[in-house]
Each structure stands twice: as structure tokens, then as C-alpha cells.
Q: What sequence folds into this?
């Protein structure tokens, strides 16, 4: 269960990072994807250390 969550967080991290890097027109979308990217990094770090 923990490994599945970690894999999902890695996929969310990769997809949001690609979206942040690739988006040039819509500033609101870039800000939202940056927030998702930071949240997934925090969740991934928490699962690695605590779980």
C-alpha cells in the first residue's frame, strides 16, 4: 500500500513538473501545477521517512 502511494506521488511529481516547465502562456496554470509539484514532493518525503 505504501509503495503504491509512493509510485502515485512520483507520477504526480513528474507530470506536474513537466507541466510547469512546458507551460508558457497560462500563468495561473503554472502556479497551480507548481503547488501540486511542491505538495507531491512533501508527501513523497513524508512517506519515505515516516512510513
A:
Amino acid at each position: 500500500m505504501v509503495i503504491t502511494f509512493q509510485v502515485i506521488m512520483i507520477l504526480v511529481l513528474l507530470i506536474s513538473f513537466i507541466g510547469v516547465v512546458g507551460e508558457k502562456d497560462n500563468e495561473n496554470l503554472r502556479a497551480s501545477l507548481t503547488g501540486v509539484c511542491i505538495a507531491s514532493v512533501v508527501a513523497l518525503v513524508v512517506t519515505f521517512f515516516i512510513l
